[in-house]
Amino acid sequence: MFDDLTHLRYLDLSSTAIRTLPKSAGFLYNLQVLMLSKCFNLVELPENTRNLINLSHLDVTETKLEEMPPEFGRLKNLQILTTFVVSKSSGSSMSELGRLLHLCGKLSIQELQNVRNVADAEDAKLKDKENIKELIFTWKTSGPDIRKETDVLEKSLRIQFQDMMMHYTELQTLHITSSCDSLTFFPLNLANKVENLQIQNCSHLKCIQLSKDLCQELKFLQDLDISDCDDLEFFSGRGMQTPNLTSLSLSNCKNLASMPEQMHTLLTSLQALCLSYCPKLESFPNGGLPPNLHSLLIENCDHLTPQKDWGLNKMASLTRLTIIGGCSNLKSFPEEGLLPASLISLQVGELPKLEILNLRGIQFLTSLKGLHINSCNKLHCLSEGKLPVSLSSLSITGCSLMSERCQQSQGEDWPKISHIANKVINGKVM
């Protein structure tokens, strides 16, 4: 197929149905760029891929590669390698990465459970690859030999990880997904130059740790996303001194019982806070929420019900508030004086005991443009009061008791909503 194309320098086969490259691809000695992204059926590269000694860019994102071919480290001119799949048997071990000295940008290392021994991991020389800006580790946590495999991997990571992180002066994004059982705490200081940190599906992680001796070095962290960490219970220390953190997301952390201390003084740059499926959270630390939040989402946190001591009414930057599920005892919302006048969008849904939408808590929200109520089966009326004249969109869906109350020209609550330009009540445009 490629026999007569020995001078080819650029080959793009992205989004094709190929399962493997023909052997003749290994004779493209002058090839510099090989694009194979979104080849969803691609499972292997030919063994003679090692002959592509001038290759500088290899993109195999969104493929099903099972391993890298043997002697992959011979591709010493590689600068962009999107994915390295560690081989369990005949392909390239992790040590082959050690020969690729010029890697930069984003690198995803997959099937890490196949690391053969500690020396194999050390030979990868990850700590020397200082130009990598985004690093993703993934490995499987099930299989017949998984206990032996993860024992090796855990020892390798304990030896390398701290030293490696100290050398990655250019690393901007770090994803840790489906970790070994031994990761019971994560010291944030190891990621002291990282801007985006994602920790996902680390089932035995119990604590996010911050050493006060190094806390000032976390000035680069902007986004922190922790999800599916069932054993995570708390953030240690006296809060997170991350002055430039703008987004914090915690989801599916079933045992998380407390938020970082001193949020209102330490997280002054935080703009977006998302809390989802954290059933043991009951409140925020003394002092309330960070003062400069723009967006707050609370979803299915059973015991986390909005309170005045959160300081929402003082948050002049808060424009979007979403409450979905939880709040099991909430019958009327919002309490008068609870919300700030800066609010532009208010959405509540799936509140099982909500009966009354309290207009006294809404009428002074002079910036409010969108109000959306969804799946509150017991909601049966709007209280005395008015909706703000700024409101241009009202949506009440899945609240069957409200249809008659909001019936055009006849419903008891119609005078309260008639001035709104766009109104949808249980699927009916009013």
Outline of this structure?
Residues 4-201 form the Disease resistance R13L4/SHOC-2-like LRR domain. By secondary structure, the protein is mostly beta strands.
Class inferred from helices and paired strands: mainly beta
Could you say which overall geometry the principal axes of the C-alpha atoms support?
Answer: elongated
Number of helices: 5
**What is the spatial order of strands in the main beta sheet?**
5-6-7-8-10-12-14-15-16-17-19-21-23-24-25
Protein name: Disease resistance R13L4/SHOC-2-like LRR domain-containing protein
Domain Disease resistance R13L4/SHOC-2-like LRR: 4-201
Keywords: Leucine-rich repeat, Repeat
Description:
By secondary structure, the chain is mostly beta strands. It has a domain of 126 residues. The strands form four sheets. The chain has a 15-stranded mixed sheet with strand order 5-6-7-8-10-12-14-15-16-17-19-21-23-24-25, with no helix packed on it. The chain has a four-stranded parallel sheet with strand order 1-2-3-4, with no helix packed on it. Strand 14, helix 3 and strand 15 form a beta-alpha-beta unit. About 1% of the residues have low confidence.
